[in-house]
């Protein structure tokens, strides 16, 4: 305990910024970075394990991110909910473990800052290739996640949370990868929710029903398990069913996105997800 406390004190001294950024113990004793404002409800929690965002409360006091009450914080198993970082493989699209190793790795804090003009706090976490990662995936890389919390943003009184994932190849040869920010968003009732795409006409693969390909001009509705890989979705995705207003996910970089909810039967087999939790989240994964 003394070593952990001393380490946390050192991190706070190096990276903490009074009134905006704090570093301390989170659930399970795992190190956590808190972005916040003293004059606002707005806050976000980012764990060094997995560079995992587990909470975002906007400036109106609404909790936007879903994290399971039964999530395991042991520094081994990926945390259920929040914003898992999938790298260097998404899902089972390759020979590695599902969703890769980034979400199961301990990252380091590279930098924290507060924008001097707008007083907006952000943190950048870094994961580098190592002997441990090369036992799984041979390539040299640097992976950075920058999380920025805004209490106000244009067209949104609640503010915004910006997550930017940057992949750098620092080795001698090329490599291929897939990835995503596997974002769990709160909804009041998934059965009454809908996901609207900027690209109204789109093609998708429904992984929950045998990987069949479909074309659609409709939003995604949830009457059973949905595990939908949607191609060329555009840069704006709107979620209906969070509150009386829509929530908006804006993305750039990857052209595709995944929409997922396990519904009743599949969620029943997840030990780190309480029985009724499937009703209260949807994953929108750019």
Percent of residues in beta strands? 35-45%
What is the helix content? under 10%
Low-confidence stretches: none
What is the count of DSSP helices, taking H or I runs of 4+ residues? Answer: 3
End-to-end gap? 38 Å
Category by helix and strand content:
mainly beta
CATH topology of the largest domain: Beta-galactosidase, Chain A, domain 5
InterPro entries: Aldose_1/G6P_1-epimerase, G6P_1-epimerase, Gal_mutarotase_sf_dom, GH-type_carb-bd
Binding site for substrate: 80, 98, 103
GO cellular component, one term: cytoplasm
Family: Belongs to the glucose-6-phosphate 1-epimerase family.
Essential attributes:
globular; 4-stranded antiparallel sheet; mainly beta; 286 residues; 20 strands; Beta-galactosidase, Chain A, domain 5; 6-stranded antiparallel sheet; 2 domains
């Amino acid at each position: 305990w003394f070593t952990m406390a001393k380490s946390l004190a050192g991190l706070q001294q190096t990276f903490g910024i009074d009134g905006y950024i704090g570093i301390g113990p989170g659930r399970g004793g795992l190190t956590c970075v808190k972005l916040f404002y003293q004059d606002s409800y707005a806050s976000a929690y980012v764990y060094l394990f997995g560079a995992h965002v587990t909470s975002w409360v906007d400036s109106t006091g609404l909790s936007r991110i879903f994290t399971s009450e039964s999530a395991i914080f042991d520094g081994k198993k990926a945390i259920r909910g929040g914003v898992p970082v999938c790298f260097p493989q998404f899902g089972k699209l390759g020979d590695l473990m599902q969703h890769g190793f980034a979400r199961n790795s301990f990252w380091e804090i590279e930098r924290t800052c507060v924008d001097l003009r707008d007083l907006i706090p952000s943190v950048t976490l870094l994961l580098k290739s190592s002997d441990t990662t090369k036992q799984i995936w041979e390539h040299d890389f640097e992976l950075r996640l920058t999380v920025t919390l805004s209490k106000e943003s244009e067209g949104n009184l609640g503010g915004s949370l910006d997550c930017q994932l940057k992949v750098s190849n620092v080795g001698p040869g090329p490599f291929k990868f897939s990835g995503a920010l596997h974002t769990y968003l709160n909804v009041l009732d998934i059965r009454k929710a809908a996901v609207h795409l900027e690209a109204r006409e789109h093609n998708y693969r429904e992984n929950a029903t045998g990987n069949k390909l479909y074309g659609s001009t409709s939003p995604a509705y949830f009457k059973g398990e949905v595990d939908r890989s949607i191609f060329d979705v555009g840069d704006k995705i709107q979620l209906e069913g969070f509150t009386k207003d829509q929530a908006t996910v804006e993305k750039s970089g990857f052209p595709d996105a995944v929409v997922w909810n396990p519904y009743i039967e599949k969620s029943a087999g997840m030990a780190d997800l309480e029985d009724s939790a499937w009703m209260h989240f949807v994953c929108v994964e750019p």
